[in-house]
Amino acid sequence: VRRRGGGVLVKSWVHQACGGGGGDGQDHGCAASVDKGCWKCGKKLRCCQLFCPCSVIQPVDNACSYFDIFKLDAAIELNQKDLEAQFKALQRQLHPDLYTRNSEREQEISAQNSALVNRAYQTLRDPLERIKYLLEQQGILTLTEQGGTISDPSLLMEIMEIRQQIDECVSPVVLDELRLSNRTKLSTLLSEIKRHHQDGHREALSQAAIRLQYYAKIEESAEAASERLAEAIKAAEKEAAAAAAAAVVLGEGGGASAVAR
After folding, report:
1. pLDDT: is 17 or 125 the higher one?
2. In the prediction, which pLDDT does 22 show?
3. How far apart are CA 210 and CA 62, in angstroms?
4. Domain 2-125 in CATH: superfamily?
5. In this entry, which stretches build a coiled coil (predicted)?
6. Which of 15, 147, 195, 223: CA 20 to 30 A from 239?
7. Residue 57: beta bridge partners?
């Protein structure tokens, strides 16, 4: 590192958020491929380039996708370790605390970029949110508020029955079985979505994504039910322990009375 302009310590090498990247200030893989100029020196840069060779932080262009920012291929499945490593590396470069002694413009860009990286990370780390974002990038609005719903009556009935079973479940064992079955369906759907995405089958991809969303909501309901059952069991155990303690006290009291007589 080196100190620039009496301000914060900044990296002397150029960090790039898309492509292979080196110290030459050139982008090597951003899908957007939009040029921009450094706001300070005017040097030509790529859209997802976070630093100019002059070491000044740059705003991320709106054309950059979340995948570009983390230097990852736009895919249904991601390596979570790679994603997390990229996230930590970016935050080490962009955190606003590093720019408190820099210009107001640099502080503003740092705060914006850091917030963007956080938002991108939260989206890509969640499978359903990642698929939703990936589809939106391709103009498929299936999982948005304006998206589609289940049109298959048998599937809709299955979803309703599963949700009812979860709502009425009073056994952790039975609930675990329901969750295992649902997770198997989620895994199958993820594989199906991945295949449709690779093959470019937009309609099949859209329909599979809708089903995935419903089964994902079932998982959320099952998680809530699991927490509810755990609290109920804990409360019952506490009540039983209190009753047992009270019985002991009463028993000791009765024994003492008999001795006194």
Report:
1. 125
2. 32
3. 27
4. DnaJ domain (1.10.287.110)
5. 215-246
6. 223
7. 51
How many other C-beta atoms are found inside a 10 Å radius of the C-beta of residue 235?
Answer: 10
Q: Locate the DSSP E strands across 92-209.
A: none
The confidence band for 188, taking pLDDT boundaries of 50, 70 and 90, is very high
Query: Which one, of 83, 78, 69, 84, lies nearest residue 32 by Cα?
Result: 69
Architecture of domain 153-260: Up-down Bundle (1.20)
Those residues whose C-beta lies under 8 Å from the C-beta of residue 142, and which sit 6 or more positions away, are 135, 148, 206, 207, 209, 210
User: Which of residues 79 and 19 earns the better pLDDT score?
Assistant: 79
d(CA 134, CA 61): 18
SS3 16: strand
Which has the higher per-residue pLDDT, 6 or 100?
A: 100
- The 10 Å Cβ neighbour count of residue 14 is 19
Distance CA 129, CA 123 (A): 5
Sequence-ordered list of residues with C-beta below 8 angstroms from that of 13, at least 6 positions apart, any chain? 23
Per-domain residue ranges of the chain? 2-125, 153-260
44 SS3 class: strand
Crossing angle for the helix pair 80-94 and 104-125, to the nearest 10 degrees: 170
Find the helix packing angle between 172-199 and 127-137, rounded to 10°: 20
- Least confident residue range of 17-21, 54-58, 238-242, 243-247: 17-21
pTM for the structure as a whole: 0.69
